[in-house]
Amino acid sequence: MLRSIRSLGLLALALGCGDEMPTAYQTSAPPPDRLFSVAGNSGCYTISGALDQAAMLPAPLAGTITGDVTGTVLTRSAGPAEAHGAAVLRPVSQTWNVTGGIVTPLIGKTLIFDNEFVGVFAQPPLVQVNTRVRIAEGAKMGNLTLHGITDLTAAPAVTSHLEYHGVICP
C-alpha cells in the first residue's frame, strides 16, 4: 500500500513538472554586474565592511571605513547616555565621507546616519555594540546594523571596531 502511494506521488510529481523541468544545472548566483544590487532594478545595494575609530574622550570618535564603502567616519554623541543594567543607550550621529568602494553612486557623498546606540558592558572595560543605524541625509534611504567592540581599557583613550552590514539606496 505504501509502495503504491509512493509510486503515485512520484508519477504526479513527474506529470506536474511538464516542460518546466530544468535540463541543465542552473546557478543561483546573480550576474557580476548585479552582484551587489538588491531587488532587481531598485537601485539599492547590499553593503558590508568595518569601521575602525579612536578618540580621546570626550572628543568624537574618528576613523576609517573599509569594505564595500570606503572613506572616513566621525561619530558624535547626540544626547545623554541612559544606563539600564549592563546596557547603555545613547543617541548618536555618524557622518561618513565616502571616497571609494564598489557602490559608485555613493563615492564623493557625505552620508549622515542616526543611531540609537546600544552597548552592553558584558566584560568591562569592553563594550559589546549591537545596534542599527538609519540614513538621515546623503542618500534616499538605508539601514545598517553595527556589531563589534568598543574598548575602554585605556580611557580616556577609546578604540572601536564595528562591522557594518545592510542595504543602502543612493
Please, could you describe this protein's structure?
- This protein is mostly beta strands and 170 residues long.
- It has one domain (32-169).
- 9% of the residues lie in helices and 58% in strands.
- It has one helix at 2-17; strands at 37-38, 44-56, 61-67, 69-77, 82-84, 87-101, 110-123, 126-137, 141-151, 157-169.
- The chain has an eight-stranded antiparallel beta barrel with strand order 2-3-4-6-7-8-9-10.
- A hairpin with a 5-residue loop joins β1 (37-38) and β2 (44-56).
- Residues 1-39 have low confidence and may be disordered.
Question: TL;DR?
Answer:
This protein is mainly beta. The protein contains 1 helix and 10 strands.
What is this structure's SSE topology?
Elements (H helix, E strand, L loop, with lengths): L1 H16 L19 E2 L5 E13 L4 E7 L1 E9 L4 E3 L2 E15 L8 E14 L2 E12 L3 E11 L5 E13 L1
Antiparallel strand pairs: 1-2, 2-3, 2-10, 3-4, 4-6, 5-6, 6-7, 7-8, 8-9, 9-10
Number of helices: 1
What is the residue-mean pLDDT, rounded to a whole number? 81
Tell me the overall shape. Answer: globular
Strand content: over 45%
Helix content: under 10%
Strand order of the largest sheet: 2-3-4-6-7-8-9-10
Number of strands: 10
Structural class: mainly beta
What is the C-alpha radius of gyration, as a whole number of Å?
23 Å
Contiguous runs where pLDDT drops below 50 for at least 5 residues: 1-39
What is the terminal-to-terminal distance? 60 Å
Count structural domains.
1
